[in-house]
Design goal:
Layout lengths: L8 E4 L2 H12 L3 E6 L5 E8 L2 E7 L18 E5 L3 H10 L3 E8 L4 E7 L5 E7 L5 H13 L4
Parallel strand pairs: 1-4, 5-8
Antiparallel strand pairs: 2-3, 3-4, 6-7, 7-8
Length: about 150
Amino acid sequence: MAIHELFPYIHVKNAEAAIAFYTSVFGVPEKFRLTEPGGRIGHAELDFGGATLMISDEYPELGVEGPAPAAPVAITLHLHVDDCDAVIARAVKAGATLEMAPADHFYGERSGSFRDPFGHRWSVGHSIEEVTPEEMQRRYTAIMNGPAS
């Protein structure tokens, strides 16, 4: 069996507003959407630089619901960009809640995170240094061991 692609598929309480948020904050185009006669969005796709994010309104009658905005989340969507500070600032200005301000990290990335108004967590970063997996592990171990006494 060959795997060809993996598509994150998120569900939200208001797909119309979420699509507007994502296209504005991330500067991504909407590829298309399928809308019911009553206005509920059954499926839409956004193009994140060649990667597709699928999105729909909730379908509680099918057990499909978005996260509660203040509830714990089980996944984080990580987006690699040119300038994480600018993207995170745009997101917060558009109504996201900052969870972690952008900072430089041991794994060679500057990143931060926010919760969008629809309950999804986004980690946004950009590369600041090439770090081998071995060096990353060394740094991680040092952090987990804490300061030497």
